[in-house]
Amino acid sequence: MSEELIDELVKLIEDNKLEDLSLLLTQESQDNAYVTLLKNSRYLVEPLKAACLIPGRAQFIDLLVTAGTDVTSCSTTGYTAAHMAACWGVVPAMRALVRLGANLKAKTVYGETAEDIAQRYGQEEVLKFFKFLAFQQKFRDEISYARSIVLTPENFTGKLSKEEKTRITKVCDEKNSWLEANYISANLLDVTEQRNDFKSKLNTVLEKVQPLEQV
Length: 215
Prior knowledge:
ANK repeat; Ankyrin_rpt-contain_sf; HSP70_C_sf; Serine Threonine Protein Phosphatase 5, Tetratricopeptide repeat; Ankyrin_rpt
Protein backbone atom coordinates (compact mmCIF):
# COMPACT_ATOMS: atom_id res chain seq x y z
CA MET A 1 0.00 0.00 0.00
CA SER A 2 2.81 2.44 0.87
CA GLU A 3 4.43 1.89 -2.52
CA GLU A 4 1.13 2.59 -4.26
CA LEU A 5 0.70 5.88 -2.41
CA ILE A 6 4.25 6.92 -3.23
CA ASP A 7 3.74 6.01 -6.89
CA GLU A 8 0.64 8.21 -6.89
CA LEU A 9 2.62 11.17 -5.50
CA VAL A 10 5.41 10.67 -8.03
CA LYS A 11 2.90 10.48 -10.90
CA LEU A 12 1.38 13.81 -9.87
CA ILE A 13 4.84 15.39 -9.85
CA GLU A 14 5.75 13.90 -13.22
CA ASP A 15 2.45 15.13 -14.67
CA ASN A 16 3.03 18.61 -13.19
CA LYS A 17 -0.21 18.55 -11.18
CA LEU A 18 0.77 20.87 -8.35
CA GLU A 19 -2.78 21.68 -7.28
CA ASP A 20 -3.79 18.03 -7.10
CA LEU A 21 -0.73 17.18 -5.01
CA SER A 22 -1.42 20.13 -2.72
CA LEU A 23 -4.98 18.91 -2.15
CA LEU A 24 -3.73 15.45 -1.21
CA LEU A 25 -1.14 16.72 1.21
CA THR A 26 -3.26 19.39 2.86
CA GLN A 27 -6.53 17.51 3.26
CA GLU A 28 -7.75 17.87 6.83
CA SER A 29 -7.19 14.49 8.41
CA GLN A 30 -5.25 13.46 11.46
CA ASP A 31 -4.20 10.27 9.72
CA ASN A 32 -3.31 11.66 6.29
CA ALA A 33 -1.51 8.64 4.85
CA TYR A 34 0.44 10.71 2.33
CA VAL A 35 1.85 13.10 4.94
CA THR A 36 2.70 10.17 7.21
CA LEU A 37 4.71 8.59 4.42
CA LEU A 38 6.62 11.78 3.67
CA LYS A 39 7.65 12.08 7.31
CA ASN A 40 9.17 8.59 7.12
CA SER A 41 12.68 8.84 5.66
CA ARG A 42 12.26 5.41 4.06
CA TYR A 43 9.91 7.00 1.55
CA LEU A 44 11.73 10.28 1.00
CA VAL A 45 13.65 9.44 -2.11
CA GLU A 46 11.12 8.88 -4.85
CA PRO A 47 8.79 11.93 -4.57
CA LEU A 48 11.59 14.40 -3.83
CA LYS A 49 13.79 12.82 -6.50
CA ALA A 50 11.06 13.31 -9.09
CA ALA A 51 10.71 16.96 -8.08
CA CYS A 52 14.48 17.48 -8.31
CA LEU A 53 15.13 15.65 -11.56
CA ILE A 54 12.42 17.22 -13.69
CA PRO A 55 12.90 20.87 -14.74
CA GLY A 56 10.04 23.12 -13.72
CA ARG A 57 9.13 21.24 -10.55
CA ALA A 58 10.79 23.44 -7.90
CA GLN A 59 7.38 24.38 -6.42
CA PHE A 60 6.77 20.71 -5.69
CA ILE A 61 9.90 20.67 -3.52
CA ASP A 62 8.43 23.41 -1.32
CA LEU A 63 5.17 21.51 -1.06
CA LEU A 64 6.84 18.22 -0.13
CA VAL A 65 9.06 19.82 2.51
CA THR A 66 6.13 21.76 3.99
CA ALA A 67 4.24 18.48 4.24
CA GLY A 68 7.04 16.94 6.28
CA THR A 69 9.72 15.63 3.94
CA ASP A 70 13.18 16.00 5.47
CA VAL A 71 15.27 17.81 2.86
CA THR A 72 18.48 16.53 4.46
CA SER A 73 17.55 12.83 4.37
CA CYS A 74 19.36 10.49 2.03
CA SER A 75 19.11 7.15 0.28
CA THR A 76 20.89 4.05 1.51
CA THR A 77 23.92 5.09 -0.55
CA GLY A 78 23.97 8.60 0.91
CA TYR A 79 22.43 10.50 -1.99
CA THR A 80 20.41 13.52 -0.87
CA ALA A 81 17.97 15.51 -2.97
CA ALA A 82 20.80 18.00 -3.58
CA HIS A 83 22.98 15.25 -5.05
CA MET A 84 20.16 14.34 -7.42
CA ALA A 85 19.51 17.91 -8.56
CA ALA A 86 23.25 18.46 -9.03
CA CYS A 87 23.61 15.29 -11.05
CA TRP A 88 20.86 16.30 -13.46
CA GLY A 89 21.80 19.97 -13.56
CA VAL A 90 18.46 21.35 -12.33
CA VAL A 91 19.49 24.72 -10.90
CA PRO A 92 15.98 25.89 -9.81
CA ALA A 93 15.72 22.71 -7.73
CA MET A 94 19.13 23.41 -6.22
CA ARG A 95 18.04 26.94 -5.31
CA ALA A 96 14.88 25.63 -3.65
CA LEU A 97 16.80 22.98 -1.71
CA VAL A 98 19.36 25.48 -0.43
CA ARG A 99 16.61 27.87 0.64
CA LEU A 100 14.92 25.04 2.52
CA GLY A 101 18.06 24.01 4.38
CA ALA A 102 19.75 21.32 2.28
CA ASN A 103 23.10 20.13 3.62
CA LEU A 104 25.51 20.74 0.74
CA LYS A 105 28.40 19.20 2.67
CA ALA A 106 26.68 15.81 2.94
CA LYS A 107 28.63 13.01 1.25
CA THR A 108 27.53 9.79 -0.39
CA VAL A 109 29.05 6.45 0.62
CA TYR A 110 31.54 7.17 -2.17
CA GLY A 111 32.65 10.39 -0.49
CA GLU A 112 31.07 12.82 -2.95
CA THR A 113 29.25 16.04 -2.15
CA ALA A 114 26.59 17.51 -4.44
CA GLU A 115 29.25 19.81 -5.90
CA ASP A 116 31.49 16.80 -6.58
CA ILE A 117 28.62 15.14 -8.41
CA ALA A 118 28.04 18.24 -10.53
CA GLN A 119 31.75 18.32 -11.35
CA ARG A 120 31.81 14.65 -12.33
CA TYR A 121 28.84 15.02 -14.66
CA GLY A 122 29.95 18.37 -16.10
CA GLN A 123 26.90 20.30 -14.92
CA GLU A 124 28.33 23.78 -15.51
CA GLU A 125 25.26 25.76 -14.49
CA VAL A 126 25.11 23.98 -11.15
CA LEU A 127 28.83 24.57 -10.65
CA LYS A 128 28.27 28.27 -11.32
CA PHE A 129 25.59 28.23 -8.63
CA PHE A 130 28.02 26.68 -6.15
CA LYS A 131 30.59 29.36 -7.00
CA PHE A 132 27.91 31.98 -6.40
CA LEU A 133 27.15 30.48 -2.98
CA ALA A 134 30.88 30.50 -2.17
CA PHE A 135 31.11 34.17 -3.17
CA GLN A 136 28.16 34.99 -0.94
CA GLN A 137 29.83 33.15 1.93
CA LYS A 138 33.02 35.14 1.42
CA PHE A 139 30.98 38.33 1.71
CA ARG A 140 29.33 37.03 4.88
CA ASP A 141 32.75 36.27 6.34
CA GLU A 142 33.89 39.82 5.59
CA ILE A 143 30.83 41.20 7.35
CA SER A 144 31.47 38.93 10.35
CA TYR A 145 35.08 40.10 10.49
CA ALA A 146 34.05 43.75 10.48
CA ARG A 147 31.47 43.11 13.18
CA SER A 148 34.06 41.30 15.34
CA ILE A 149 36.17 44.47 15.45
CA VAL A 150 33.32 46.15 17.33
CA LEU A 151 32.33 43.15 19.46
CA THR A 152 35.83 41.99 20.46
CA PRO A 153 38.15 45.02 20.22
CA GLU A 154 40.64 43.30 22.55
CA ASN A 155 41.56 40.98 19.67
CA PHE A 156 42.69 43.87 17.47
CA THR A 157 45.31 46.58 17.48
CA GLY A 158 44.36 50.19 16.81
CA LYS A 159 41.49 52.19 18.18
CA LEU A 160 38.25 53.28 16.62
CA SER A 161 36.04 56.14 17.64
CA LYS A 162 32.47 55.63 18.81
CA GLU A 163 31.25 57.04 15.52
CA GLU A 164 33.38 54.60 13.53
CA LYS A 165 32.09 51.64 15.54
CA THR A 166 28.54 52.80 15.00
CA ARG A 167 29.24 53.11 11.30
CA ILE A 168 30.57 49.55 11.12
CA THR A 169 27.56 48.16 12.96
CA LYS A 170 25.12 50.04 10.76
CA VAL A 171 26.72 48.90 7.50
CA CYS A 172 27.04 45.29 8.69
CA ASP A 173 23.38 45.22 9.73
CA GLU A 174 22.38 46.69 6.39
CA LYS A 175 24.34 44.13 4.36
CA ASN A 176 23.30 41.17 6.50
CA SER A 177 19.67 42.15 6.08
CA TRP A 178 20.13 42.41 2.34
CA LEU A 179 21.76 38.99 2.12
CA GLU A 180 19.02 37.38 4.18
CA ALA A 181 16.32 38.93 2.02
CA ASN A 182 18.01 38.13 -1.28
CA TYR A 183 19.94 34.96 -0.45
CA ILE A 184 18.51 32.90 -3.28
CA SER A 185 17.02 35.45 -5.67
CA ALA A 186 20.14 37.61 -6.06
CA ASN A 187 22.67 37.07 -8.83
CA LEU A 188 26.45 37.50 -8.87
CA LEU A 189 26.22 41.12 -10.06
CA ASP A 190 23.83 42.01 -7.23
CA VAL A 191 26.12 40.56 -4.58
CA THR A 192 29.18 42.15 -6.16
CA GLU A 193 27.54 45.57 -6.05
CA GLN A 194 26.61 45.11 -2.40
CA ARG A 195 30.12 43.94 -1.54
CA ASN A 196 31.70 46.89 -3.33
CA ASP A 197 29.39 49.26 -1.48
CA PHE A 198 30.34 47.59 1.80
CA LYS A 199 34.03 48.09 1.06
CA SER A 200 33.64 51.68 -0.06
CA LYS A 201 31.87 52.55 3.19
CA LEU A 202 34.18 50.72 5.56
CA ASN A 203 37.62 50.13 4.05
CA THR A 204 39.16 53.33 5.43
CA VAL A 205 37.88 52.43 8.90
CA LEU A 206 38.89 48.78 8.76
CA GLU A 207 42.41 49.68 7.67
CA LYS A 208 42.96 51.31 11.05
CA VAL A 209 42.97 47.97 12.89
CA GLN A 210 44.65 44.58 12.53
CA PRO A 211 44.15 41.24 14.28
CA LEU A 212 46.65 40.73 17.08
CA GLU A 213 48.11 37.60 15.52
CA GLN A 214 49.19 39.62 12.46
CA VAL A 215 51.19 42.13 14.51
